[in-house]
Amino acid sequence: MNVLSLFDGMSCGQIALERIGVKVDNYYASEIKKHAIQVTQKNYPNTIQVGDITKLKGSDLPKIDLLIGGSPCQDFSRANKTKKGLDGEKSGLFWEYVRLLKETNPTYFLLENVRMKKEWQDIISEELGVQPVRINSSLVSGMLRDRFYWTNIPFDTEIKDKGVKLSDIIDDGYVDREKGYCLLESYSRPLKTPAKIARRYFLYGFWQVVFKDEKTYNRLKGDYNLAQEGDVRYMTNEEMERAQNVPPGYTSDLTRNNSACLLGDGWTVDVIAHIFQGIKVKKNIEKVIVD
To answer: Which one of 12, 73, 182, 261 is the catalytic residue?
Structure first.
């Protein structure tokens, strides 16, 4: 199987294919972030890096069996004041995905993105010819991650809840919820003081944090300005890897912040592996028919 991964990041799609035992002959990755490429090549040295998506041509590639990608979501975000959507500089790169989908004409394709305005969702659906499936990663992880998946892969849309809790993926400390807040790329830009970390968490709940113990949590909930060194912390590399179902040590060469950047932008691997199971099932059926 030849795979073309656009906006490949740290190659979560490659992890998912390996996890379910789908043989990949050539994996072409379009990515421009230095740290993402570094992590991918450390873990999958045979990956063929093809660079900037805007300069990539389908005619330069062999027959592609699977095209995957999660185009940038920044212009869809509620936190973005301009919200230009598909006209935005970053989210507008969706049109490069469409171009390469037409140029490579793969057997299967998968596009992932965040929840967005219905008008943008409908445009994407019309361009790809399929309606999205909405899946929350909380079914397979201790973290929330509500996403849309557009694909022509015939997979079972019912995913069994594995019952993983946030407390299952942290090494120590106390967390006040069953499922953690969605891991985001912005988690790579931490606040500097314990009081500021606690304030953001209690007031806005934007980034997931871990408290020293339940007693400390209750004390800071009453007054976050009392937070001292050691009272509250961000998740470690290893904990973030578990949150995204990534193999332990996958991002070990990176600093905590660079790891958070890639993992926050990445896919929840077990969700993607579940979708890819549809390819494996279909191939097995075809093999039986041929035999």
So the answer is: 73
Residue 182 annotated as catalytic: no
Q: What confidence tens digit (pLDDT) does each residue in 160-211 have?
A: 999 999 999 999 999 999 999 999 999 999 999 999 999 999 999 889 999 9
Instruction: Residue 138: give the domain boundaries.
Output: 2-158
10 close to 34: Cβ distance less than 8 angstroms: no
**What's the structural domain count of the chain?**
1
Beta bridge partners of 30: 6
Instruction: Work out the burial of residue 270: count CB atoms within 10 Å of its CB; fewer than 13 is exposed, 13-18 middle, 19 or more buried.
Output: buried
In a domain, 62, yes or no: yes
Q: Is residue 96 part of a domain?
A: yes
57: left (phi over 0), alpha (psi -120 to 50) or beta: beta
User: In sequence order, which residues have a C-beta less than 8 Å from that of residue 95 and are 6 or more positions away?
Assistant: 86
> Does the global pTM surpass 0.85?
yes
Instruction: Specify the CATH number for the domain of residue 136.
Output: 3.40.50.150
250: in domain: no
